[in-house]
Design a protein that fits this description.
By secondary structure, this protein is an alpha+beta fold. It has helices spanning about 1-25, 100-150, 160-215, 420-435, 440-460, and strands spanning about 35, 40-55, 55-60, 75-80, 85, 90-95, 220, 225, 230, 245, 250-255, 260-265, 280-285, 290-300, 305, 310-320, 330-350, 355, 360-365, 370-375, 375-380, 385-390, 395-400. Among the domains are: about 60-95 and about 215-255, OB fold (Dihydrolipoamide Acetyltransferase, E2P) (Beta Barrel), CATH 2.40.50; about 100-215. About 20% of the residues are buried.
Length: about 450
């Protein structure tokens, strides 16, 4: 009896092995992996990497009048080490003065040139005005001389008297014209002197401005604090050998470590989920066991393209709650932004889901000794898992990959989703056909209306 039972069990085992060999295809090089549908708290989040920085900080500026002198970039010659505690008024950095020295030499030559021109015009004006004054004196003597001649000729013939009168008037006229010319020349020379004086003062002011600018090439700390290098457009800190721009002459910052933020960037696909005020779980790469709480305080409205990346991202600022002495600027953070939370839900790994024509989502469900291609209705998802609303239950076993031999298996559809699919088909059909034509609709209405009237008449008869 026992022998028969053993033979029967052996036959069943052989049949099962043969079934799975034929059904599975025998072409799988890797074993199928199954996971269970889990039930519990489900959290939708977006994970990003950020960098700590102070929310408020004092900027340490280099020279701010570089553009006035057409100096657009200045190299940092020396700077104190990043992270150094500096005191107010202490030395921070020195900038390269080579371009400035060239400008100062040119300005000094311009001052010398204007000063020489000023002196030359001043001497020419003095000489010219002296000549004009001497001419006026001589003309005045000529008038007196003509007056004497005229007085002595009163007993002379009338023609002689007339000639002497003409000579006297001519002398007076010459004096009057010379006096007017003198006044005009004086105004001209005064204007010339004002012009050269203005040019001289302009060049002197430029030299003085360059000299004052030279003093700003030694940068001092405006406040006490920890020195943090400013980051350039490439994201690298500005140190010795780096150049600062005349449009943004910030060399370093003194951060206020009492309030820290994590600056991160979220891709354009996920940024629509991020809202101001959302809770964030913050981790520190430097301290893996430490967990901090934060909150989103700002979401950029305009995207940007980061270096060495083709994707568009949006800046998101996360403020760290509380104060921790371990936090330092430039520390790398892992941020988990909590979008929403479900207290209870069924969920599985994203890899379990497959789709057909982008309209039917299904899974491969282990159904006893067989595999079932089951449609599912999905809900919220995070980066790794997705909520299953309908189609499978807690504890069901699903395949992570497509089991061999079941690619063409018929999908078991959900009755609850048939209505949605039919409605979608009707909407797609309406979109393809376009709006109904008015003329045809009016004719159709007329025909149907006529039919109704005739039937009404028949019923009355």
């Amino acid at each position: 009896m026992n022998r028969k039972i053993l033979m029967g069990i052996g036959a069943v085992v052989i049949l099962l092995i043969g079934y799975f060999v034929v059904r599975g295809g025998g072409n799988n090089d890797t074993a199928d992996i199954l996971v269970s549908v889990e039930r519990g708290k489900f959290q939708v989040d977006v994970e990003t990497t950020g960098e700590l920085e102070a929310k408020n900080s004092v900027k340490i500026y280099g020279p701010r009048k570089l553009r006035e002198h057409r100096i657009f970039q200045v190299k940092i010659d020396k700077i104190v080490e990043e992270g150094t505690e500096v005191e107010k008024g202490g030395w921070i950095a020195s900038l390269d003065r080579s371009d400035l020295m060239t400008k100062m030499q040119d300005a000094q030559l311009e001052v010398d040139k204007e000063l020489s021109q000023y002196t030359q015009i001043e001497l020419d004006t003095t000489l010219q005005m002296r000549q004009s004054r001497d001419e006026l004196i001589n003309l005045q003597y000529a008038i007196e001389e003509k007056q004497i001649i005229l007085d002595q000729s009163k007993f002379e013939p009338p023609a002689t008297i007339k000639q002497n009168e003409i000579n006297f008037k001519k002398a007076e006229r010459a004096y009057t014209q010379a006096k007017e010319n003198y006044i005009i020349k004086k105004k001209q020379n005064k204007a010339r002197m004002q012009e050269v004086n203005a040019n001289l003062r302009k060049s002197q002011n430029k030299l003085k401005s360059l000299t004052d600018l030279m003093m700003e090439f030694n940068i001092i700390a405006p406040e006490d604090g920890m020195l943090i290098y400013k980051k350039g457009f490439d994201g690298k800190p500005m140190k010795e050998g780096s150049t600062i721009s005349a449009w943004d002459p910030v060399v370093a910052t003194l951060p206020d470590l009492s309030v820290m933020i994590s600056k991160t960037f979220v891709n354009e696909v996920d940024v629509r989920k991020i809202k101001k005020g959302q809770v964030v779980e913050v981790g520190l790469d430097a301290f893996p066991d430490k967990r901090l709480n934060g909150r989103v305080i700002k979401v950029a409205n305009v995207g940007e393209q980061r270096p060495n990346s083709d994707a568009k991202v949006f800046q998101v600022n996360i403020q760290i709650e509380g104060r921790d002495g371990l936090l330092r600027p430039s520390m790398t953070t892992s941020n988990k932004i909590i979008i929403s939370t479900l207290d209870t839900a069924n969920f599985v790994a994203m890899e379990c889901l497959h789709s057909k024509n982008d309209s039917i989502t299904y899974v491969f469900l282990k159904d006893g000794l067989s595999v079932k291609k089951q449609e599912v209705e999905i809900g919220l998802n995070n980066m790794n898992e997705v909520v299953i609303i309908n189609g499978v239950a807690e504890g069901d076993r699903l395949y992570l990959s497509i089991p061999s031999g079941y690619e063409d298996e018929e999908i078991s559809l959900l009755a609850s989703l048939n209505g949605k699919r039919n409605l979608k088909k009707v909407e797609e059909k309406v979109e393809k056909q376009g709006p109904p034509q008015r003329g045809k609709r009016m004719r159709g209405q007329g025909e149907s209306g006529g039919g109704k009237r005739s039937s009404k008449k028949e019923s009355i008869k």
